[in-house]
Amino acid sequence: MNQTPRYSTVLRCTLLALAFGAVATACGESATHPLSTRPFDAAEQVVFNTPKGAVKANPDKPLEVTVKGDEGRITDVTVVDDSGHHLGGELSADGSLWRSTGSLSAGAKYTARVATENKDGAPGTRTLLFETAAAKRLLTVDFGPEAGTYGVGQPLIAVLSMPVADKKARAVVERALKVDSKPGVEGAWHWVDDENLHFRPKDYWPTGATVRASSNLQGVKISNQLYGGASKPLSVSIGDRVEAITDASSHYMTVKRNGEVINTIPVTTGKPGFSTRNGVKVVLGKEYFVRMRGSSVGIGGSEAYDLPVYYATRVTWSGEYVHAAPWSIGSHGYANVSHGCTGMSTGNAAWFYETVREGDLVHVVNSYGEDMDAFGNGYGDWNLSWEDWRKGSALVAGVRDGSGPADAARLRPRF
To answer: What is this structure's pTM?
Structure first.
């Protein structure tokens, strides 16, 4: 089969180009496309709904970009704030209008870049720099506890500067609250009430973990005229897993560190009518000396008491402690005679006081007392199943708006 060599085709194209005085990049193709000119300035083609001059835009209103009359169409819009966050939006089918669908941040600087075409199909561009006004109402977050080292049961606390009841607004807040743990854990926030959230892992924190809580709320729209403010992050460390299991029926406490038993202590717990609460409690603090008076917690008559107490480790806000009780030494390991606290010898109480830290676990079993409340009287967070805990998150579909705080009025302080 006869074939024309390729060089002859190239030669003919070259001769044609020379004959007509044109420069060609390929046979039959011009090097200059009629629409390949530099994009024109579209300042006279498109209009923004932002205020003129130095007036700052209202962040509660959507950003709009429109084309004047029949001057062509918008092909693309990109809007980015000074933190690198992109503003979402929608472009109409005919390209005449772009409107933001995301919320503008308050007190932010934006760069909007618009690409257009005119009636002839030539490309145009326009860039606009604008700022949004500062928010009149700011929601800030205080994280707790204080920086330091805690036990594996310590929940993280987020206290909001004002209540947030609406579920959509709660979702915005919760989505902006970040918890980073090394090693990583599965965990979730739980709305205790409109102003307080707790974060805990599915299981206890890993020993030796480092945990950081922070907020990305600054400038974010939470609800109508309410925006997030700046909040200080929190970093804490997690120590050994120390847990004390108090068996009210055997009258002994078993203390473990990282799963190994390190002490077994004879104790006394609450007597009938003042039985110690069952369940998992978290060490709230330690007080070397506490003056305990029955009258301060509504206990009088034949049950009245006024005692100097040493080496007191608090586990509820209403007054339940693990402490030295030398006056009942004969009952330790044999009978429950206290008003709800866990009592032990002075030597054992001093050892316990020196061994545990905030966030360590105190688990009471086999008591005739009520169950420890999840909230309102200390950190009873671990008494909720993981399924029930996640129901307190605004980011889990079909959950309640919040568990609500415990009714503190019905809690009788016990010692």
So the answer is: 0.78
